[in-house]
Specification:
Layout (H helix, E strand, L loop, with lengths): L1 H17 L2 H5 L10 H10 L3 E8 L2 E7 L5 E9 L10 E10 L7 H11 L4 E4 L5 E8 L6 H22 L7
Antiparallel strand pairs: 1-2, 2-3, 3-4, 4-6, 5-6
Helix pairs in contact: 1-5, 3-5
Length: 173
C-alpha cells in the first residue's frame, strides 16, 4: 500500500511539475499572496473541469472538479482587513475536498484511519455528516506556480486514494 501511495504521489508531482504547453506560457513569477489567476491556471494545468471563480464569505474562491471527479474548493485565507470595495490581501489558501461516506459510516473511525494513513492534509469529521480533506498553503516567502500545482496535485492524489477507504467502489461522477 505504501508503494502504491508513493507511486501515485510521485506521478502527481511529476505531472504538476512538468506542466503543459499552456502552463509553460504562463508567468513563472513567484506567488506571494492570493492570486485568482494563478489558482485558475494551476487547476487548468491539472485538467480540472467546471472551474469557477467566485467569492465565499467575502473572500475569493475557486471551485472545480478534479480529473478523477472529486469536487474541490480553493479559498483565500489569512486576509488583511480592507475597506469596502477593495480586495483584501490574502496570505494563504485552503484547498478542500469533501466526501459523503453515508449515514451508516463510522466517520470518526474513518477520519482517524485516513489521518494516520495520509499525513499530507487533515481529514475532519464535519457536523453536516461529511468528511473534509483540507490542505493549507502559506504564501509567506512566496511559492512558484509549479509548487502551487504540486501542492494541489498531491492533495488530489490523496483525495483519490481516500475514496478507496471511504467506498468499496469509486464515487459516481
Amino acid at each position: 500500500m505504501a508503494y502504491r501511495w508513493l507511486a501515485l504521489a510521485l506521478s502527481a508531482f511529476s505531472f504538476a511539475a512538468a506542466g503543459t504547453g499552456a502552463a509553460q506560457a504562463q508567468s513563472s513569477d513567484a506567488i506571494d499572496h492570493w492570486n485568482t489567476n494563478a489558482v485558475l491556471a494551476a487547476l487548468q494545468t491539472l485538467q480540472a473541469s467546471d472551474i469557477r471563480a467566485d467569492t465565499a464569505q467575502g473572500h475569493a474562491a475557486v471551485t472545480a472538479r478534479t480529473h478523477e471527479g472529486l469536487n474541490v474548493g480553493v479559498y483565500a485565507r489569512a486576509c488583511d482587513q480592507a475597506p469596502p470595495g477593495v480586495d483584501p490581501l490574502c496570505h494563504g489558501l485552503e484547498a478542500i475536498i469533501s466526501f459523503d461516506p453515508g449515514a451508516r459510516a463510522d466517520r470518526k473511525a474513518l477520519v482517524n484511519e485516513l489521518n494516520h494513513r495520509y499525513a499530507l492534509g487533515k481529514f475532519l469529521d464535519e457536523p453536516d455528516g461529511t468528511i473534509r480533506l483540507t490542505r493549507y498553503v502559506v504564501f509567506d516567502g512566496a511559492v512558484t506556480p509549479g509548487n502551487l500545482r504540486a501542492e494541489l496535485a498531491s492533495l488530489f492524489a490523496i483525495g483519490n486514494l481516500a475514496t478507496q477507504t471511504l467506498w468499496s467502489e469509486p464515487p459516481r461522477r
